[in-house]
Amino acid sequence: MAVYTEIGDDELDDLLHQYDIGRALSCKGIAEGVENSNYLLHTTGGYFILTLYEKRVNPADLPFFLGLMDHLAGRQVPCPTPIHGRDGAALRAVAGRPAAIIAFAEGRALTKPGPDHCQRLGAALAELHLAGSDFTRERPNALSVGGWRPLFEASRARADEVAPGLAAELEGELAALEAGWPGGLPEGVIHADLFPDNVLFLDGRINAFIDFYFACNDAFAYDLAICLNAWCFEKDGSFNATKARKLMAGYQGVRPLEAAEMAALPLLARGAAIRFLLTRLYDWLNQIEGALVKPKNPLEYLAKLRFHRDAGGPGAYGLDA
Amino acid sequence: MAVYTEIGDDELDDLLHQYDIGRALSCKGIAEGVENSNYLLHTTGGYFILTLYEKRVNPADLPFFLGLMDHLAGRQVPCPTPIHGRDGAALRAVAGRPAAIIAFAEGRALTKPGPDHCQRLGAALAELHLAGSDFTRERPNALSVGGWRPLFEASRARADEVAPGLAAELEGELAALEAGWPGGLPEGVIHADLFPDNVLFLDGRINAFIDFYFACNDAFAYDLAICLNAWCFEKDGSFNATKARKLMAGYQGVRPLEAAEMAALPLLARGAAIRFLLTRLYDWLNQIEGALVKPKNPLEYLAKLRFHRDAGGPGAYGLDA
Asked: In chain B, N or C: fewer CB atoms in 10 Å?
């Protein structure tokens, strides 16, 4: 959590009066999610996550996020459902912040996902992509290629504090990605932040995708490229081709990739790496005092970026082109 | 939490194999407790708190803390029960740290406790004191008068960074408290950290005292003096005599104070104020990067300390001497 908002006793009671989920038995702040304040709320009606949206989330985007979760849950994509109040609305305000109550999703985020988990992830991701096809709201991806340069400019002057030469390397990368970024690939709603933290497994199966607060419209293959980065590198930085093949096989079993998507994968993965490198770099250089979650080291993604830059094609990932 | 330890998937499964509480459905880090890493653990057997004891807790003290919780729970003092494994032990190790699983206690810590809550607190505190009388383990209070000077010395050189003149003021206070600290008061097991954070209310009643990791043997009236500090000042620093009277009435309804305890209260309250001032000062000056909980402002307790120093006797608290 970036910030941790305290909820007063009366505020919580007032909030619950707007719902049909009973009265509060306990409400504990949980150390989950980098962007928002999250509470595990137990009421006489069950277990829920109460999320207060902090300043990084644009309130205007919340109807997209909550509507998407409703939409996907209605199509059997494993994701928690926003709870609607007596007035029908899922979005309201607590402690001066936009807030929503979401059904609690069981399951554990894996610290060491294996190849079979990657295969299940691939299949479920393809199902998410298909299920989103008739979702009518749209949200452009602010963190795609057009958004990287402003983010870079905000960190450029101090980038070399993190690694000598980083500013120059990123400048070169950005220029290459801006020049070569693929267009015309199949698009739709993507999760755009599908790290192991955001996938809850139960008995080896995916029980819930969570944290839809980067979801947007973009190329499906870019979502897959984010997963290649987040799931297929080992802690020592090595790329696990077995996991990548399983991830792809799971995905293609549900939604086969077009040739153009497969060919674009190395560049998309390189873009995904710079996207997380840039946000981590910014967070690293602008640490929030008292933040509940320590910023992640941006250099992990510099190593991934270099791997993708040096990859000649899908074959470098152990994938058949 | 001072530090937040990540628990691996296998480590959690291995841990649960040592208990009869089923298998893990979810395990979420919670933003509670300054000293340890706490997780809300849901298993097929119910809800639990899994605590990993971080470096501030002396492992040698854990049998005292866990044994005390067992003892008190067995005497109907509202407190969560440590879960014993198949081998009978409540204390074991996870991720290289001592760890215990504790029954989950419902209830909400109040952000704005009122006079009636203070009365219930007083009564329950007296019951805790009586129930501890036949607990056989002992733990001296390392944070009583003898422990304050070393703590002060660790912060003295930088104390004036927090408030000009603070080092000199604390030096004078310490000398006065060391010279006049009362002895011979009725003693026993005290909680020693009974802030509103550590008392869970449900339907206006106390459902659980939690966080026994400062519990020790000391004067009962010192525990009450800690509560006077923690429950009877308003956020603007003013002392609420109504709350103090209710707290005392609740306590004395169960365990009447001796005349010497009543007479010692202002000095005990002054000591309790410097105890929390000193630990907060140390934590303020030695912030841990990435800590999950921001250190509390020590100056809140400087104001309280001054209030107690200027109090002529119990009458200054609205109490009848």
From this structure: C
Sequence length of chain B is 321
- Kind and range of the H or E run holding A49: strand A46-52
Q: Render pLDDT for B24-44 as a digit per residue (tens, 0 to 9).
A: 999 988 876 667 889 999 999
Give the best residue of B203, B205, B292 to mutate against chain A (max A CB count within 10 A): B292
| SS3 call for A280 | helix
The total number of structural domains that make up chain B: 2
Which of B28, B117, B199, B206 to mutate to probe the A interface, most A CBs <10 Å? B28
pLDDT, tens digit (0-9, with 9 covering 90-100), for A5-45: 778 888 999 999 999 999 999 998 887 666 788 999 999 99
Q: Is B205 an interface residue toward A (CB < 8 Å)?
A: no
Residues B213 and B73 in one domain: no
Evaluate whether residue A2 is within a structural domain.
Answer: no
Asked whether residue B233 falls in the same domain as residue B177, the answer is yes
C-beta of residue A304 within 8 angstroms of C-beta of residue A296: no
Quick one: A150 exposed, middle or buried, by C-beta within 10 A (0-12, 13-18, 19+)? exposed
List, for residues A157-189, the tens digit of each pLDDT value. Answer: 999 999 999 999 999 999 999 999 999 999 999
Residues of A in contact with B30 (CB under 8 A): 28-31, 40
CA distance B167 to chain A (A): 25
**B113 shares its domain with B91:** no
